[in-house]
Amino acid sequence: MDGNGRWAEKRGHNRVFGHARGAERAREITRECARLGVEALTLYTFSTENWQRPAKEVNFLMKLLSRYLKHEIQQIVNNNFQFRPVGFIDMPPTEIHRELVKLRDATAKNDGMYLNIALSYGSRQEITAAVQGIAADVAAGRLPLNAVTEEEISRRLFTSESPDPDLVIRTGGDQRISNFLLWQSAYSELYFTEKCWPDFKVEDLQEAIAAYSARERRFGKVLNITGPRDESRA
Ligand code: IPE
Ligand code: MG
Predict the structure, then answer these.
(1) Residue 182: alpha-carbon gap to chain centroid
(2) Does a structural domain hold residue 209?
(3) Rounded to whole angstroms, how far apart are CA atoms 123 and 127?
């Protein structure tokens, strides 16, 4: 969800105005994803690197998030979402930490769309933590070396319950991944748009999904539907 600050500055507002508008978009896009039957939606809300922004902006974002969590809890529960914080949730202020855990617990029995909020999230840090856990278990003799599989690594990531993303969308015009779901997005389709997040409407999501649907996913293989195999059969 990139481009909130630039969107606001371009309109003569301060950056936080863009974040407030961005929060409204997040609400709409979440609802639309559920309507479309998306299995898991991960919103990149705040990265580990974002802690280095000016304190004023960080404080505003934390307040906005706290308000969002308190305000949306009933909706999230009623919509049958499975809310999952994705990231180092001990880092945000205690109040937010409490809200995140509360929301996760309140949706524990739901079985609808995973709503993953990536907060204080960094993919390299996530992988590093997983590797540390694995190394500790191997060193202690709890985990044999041949049990260190791709599945075991996936299981130790914050997203362990969700399927890998089929589609990663980045708004705001930059074409990079910026430490987002590096392991999980190995075969994801990437979609970049110039639109800033506060301008990203339901129609734009539908356009992104249409573009995704038109792509051929080969997962490194060759798709040969009418090739020699058919001839040999004939
Ligand atoms: C994305 O908008 C929201 C967060 C990272 C919290 P930005 O704040 O990155 O906006 P730009 O990229 O500076 O325009
Ligand atoms: Mg940005």
Answers:
(1) 11
(2) yes
(3) 6
User: What is the DSSP track for 98-137?
Assistant: HHHHHHHHHTTT--S-EEEEEEEE-HHHHHHHHHHHHHHH
Q: Tell me how far apart the alpha carbons of residues 199 and 83 are, in angstroms, rounded to a whole number.
A: 25
Ion ligand 2: residues, Cβ under 5 Å: 2
Q: How far is the CA of 172 from the centre of ligand 2 (A)?
A: 7
pLDDT tens per residue across span 111-151: 999 999 999 999 999 999 999 999 999 999 999 999 999 99
* CATH number for 119: 3.40.1180.10
pTM of the model: 0.94
How many domains does the structure of the chain reveal? 1
Assess whether the C-beta atom of 4 lies below 6 angstroms from ligand 1: yes
Q: Is residue 153 part of a domain?
A: no
How far apart are alpha carbons 171 and 214 in whole angstroms?
20
Predicted pLDDT at 232: 45
In a 3-state reduction of DSSP, which class is residue 162? coil
Choose the residue to mutate in 1, 2, 24, 169 for probing ligand 1, maximizing ligand atoms within 8 Å of C-beta. Answer: 2
What positions carry a catalytic annotation?
2, 50
Q: Which of 1, 4, 46 maximizes ligand 1 atoms within 8 Å of its Cβ, making it the mutation to test the pocket? A: 4
Torsion of the alpha carbons at 170, 25, 83 and 163, rounded to the nearest 10 = -30
Does 138 fall in a domain?
no
